[in-house]
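User: I'll paste a sequence; please echo it back and then give the predicted structure.

Assistant: Echoing your sequence first, then the prediction.
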Amino acid sequence: MPPTPAAGPAPATPSRARDLADRAAEIDRRLCPDQRAGAHKVVVLALDGVYPFELGIPHRVLGSADGRYEVLSASVDGRSVRTDSDLTVTPGHGPEVLAGADTVVIPPYAISPASAAAPDPRALAALSRVRPGTRLVSICTGAFLLAAAGLLDGRRATTHWALADYFQELFPRVELDAGVLFVDHGDVLTSAGAASGVDVCLHLVRQDHGSEVANQVARRCVVPPYRDGGQAQYIERPLPPAGGTGTGPTRDWAEQRLELPLSLDELAAHAAMSTRTFARRFREETGLSPGRWLTQQRLRRARHLLESSDLPVERVAHEVGFATATSLRRHLAAEAGVAPSAYRRTFRATGPGGGAGAGDGPGAP
């Protein structure tokens, strides 16, 4: 007797299909309800080279606030916009819609040395349509446009940490803080890269409608309502090249002994220099004092262990040369703005179950 074929899924009946469609429509209404009368008008200005992910953040986050915001998109000329990916988007409006906006968001766009210093004149002209008192928000490189328009002069602002030096060189009148996720001046807000666009949009909801509404929006978007620390915890800090002369061999030697309480005298003796000469040469080669350099290397090693091991925080502190777990917590909070347990939760590589490593349970810092 031939084998009986395996039964496949039963075809959906018309009533079952209608039920599924109704459920999908209800979910859609809950996530993106119709806007309320008098909703706060937000216009997202898409520039040439816009990043698609960040372009969609304002609509996704603010559009989940029970119709409290009307989110529109615009281009500088009403035409399609090339993104930094292999696709083109067509905003629903031209620059004229900016004149009626309550909030204008500038998502990030691909910049070059030329476009960073002197943006598309059409973009500057579009910004000139914005009414005085309108709230301005930038995400990542969107801050370059606001700075080029002179809107950040004398203000504290932020952008992606990898572009901080370049930004400061171009716009010395701006007080740049590359260690935070966003800066709120009330009428102008700037945020760091990528997901910080979510952070600043949730902050807008929190400022406009309170924490309860912001938390509800965060749940709908499946994101944390507030992230600990700033972008300092994401900054790559490459080591200076050791080299074969000067203090380089001693830095190599010290890196292999970070768990030991290395003193300036010991480091100078290894380099066969006086402590004064060693300290001077060390600062010339690294830009740091020996003590500060040791702290940075210990933190670098500690961050690696927090990301890659199950070691309790107390053991991590011992392994990298901090006298106590309290000392590690204090130094990590000063550098990255977070406690060891929070850093581990953010960066720990976990398996499919997503479980936390040892040291993140009850009693963890």
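The first helix runs from residue 14 to 31. The chain has 15 helices and ten strands.
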